[in-house]
Specification:
2 copies of one chain form a homodimer. Chain A has 230 residues and is an all-alpha fold. Chain A has a single domain, classed as Up-down Bundle (Methane Monooxygenase Hydroxylase, Chain G, domain 1). The first copy, chain A, is built from 7 helices and no strands. In chain A, helix 1 runs antiparallel to helix 2. The longest helix of chain A is centred in the N-terminal third of the chain and has 34 residues. The two termini of chain A are 13 Å apart. At the A-B interface, helix 2, helix 3, helix 5, helix 6 and helix 7 of A face helix 2, helix 3, helix 5, helix 6 and helix 7 of B.
Amino acid sequence: MERHFDHDLDELKEQLLRMGSRSEAIVQKAVESLKRRDSALAKEVFEDDRAIDRMEIDIDERCVSLLALRQPMASDLRFITAALKIVNDLERVGDHGVNIAGNALRLNQEPPLKPLVDIPRMADMASSMLHEALDAFVRRDAATARRLVRRDDDVDNLNRQLFRELVSFMIEDPHTITRAMELILVARNLERVADLATNVAEEVVFIAEARIIKHHAEEMASGGEDFGRT
Amino acid sequence: MERHFDHDLDELKEQLLRMGSRSEAIVQKAVESLKRRDSALAKEVFEDDRAIDRMEIDIDERCVSLLALRQPMASDLRFITAALKIVNDLERVGDHGVNIAGNALRLNQEPPLKPLVDIPRMADMASSMLHEALDAFVRRDAATARRLVRRDDDVDNLNRQLFRELVSFMIEDPHTITRAMELILVARNLERVADLATNVAEEVVFIAEARIIKHHAEEMASGGEDFGRT
């Protein structure tokens, strides 16, 4: 049973990392479609999002099965319940990708407002945070996770700076309003992706620090009752 | 054991409903602070959000304990794993309340742009959706949940209508840009609250339709192994 369980857990981690890669990729593709003004690429994002939605359902099913059939305890139990929350976050990353692709489709029909520098930079920051957060999660690496939580401020600052810049565009020339609005919304979606990466990182820290439950569960297990794996 | 478990589950439902009420209330209070131009009220929202964050941690702990100590099966297992996702949604409702309170604090320092009609209406729609979704969840009422999912479109339409109206304000008079932007962001936060209510409703539908796992778990249980409560 233990060996099977380890194998199941490894498969769950693999699945999470695959879903994580898809989530990073969708953010990059959506911003790329904006940068290259490539509406065909933007449309691919909608299909990619459906694939991510299916991955969420598969991982949820695996988590529920693991809970039902293996009855994991302590840190493994916490790992699985955290995974349930994290797939929710990754699914939302997909939704933000879809929002950005929608902004791109509308923006690609109008002349460019300004060269895109900060938005691709925000996309890189957000998707690398996502990558590292997932990696920290499967490795249960709280130190890396803690550093990530602090990096969220950089993305917030970039978002605020871009917001001010775009509002000043609008004030100077009302013709830019609709386009500037779309770019503000793109930046907000990227900022939300960084928030979701931060959520994942916070789960990792929370698991590492949640000694109360772990302690309690171990006590129960050593009390002689059969609680399965501890 | 069964009786204890039912009691635990009832307490979990109570806690979820309490957290739900707080989440509805925070949305209403944030919009109220905007409507009444009451910055002291807006500041209360930040404290309310911290209370909601603490409720999330408490409910998470209860769910993990229930999984560890009671090893529920089938529909109860699914109920608890769904609860883990739903508290995440409710916690985000609190964050949207905070965002709106921030918009209110900035807007209250400037003359009003227009009478607020649609925004309070969106707030009512979003918070009643949240209320009904939570209620459907604890009653495991998939029919109500399915109707709720469709109501999300009304909020989206109102948001789009308001967006167009505010953009036309900006175009006509650039002095309105900052205020109109803030109101657009308020409406987007409310639209996200309705999305989160829809997520909760979708969980309810998903639980009701997830016969595969339930079936599988029941098969395992009837296979003679001790899987606890089925």
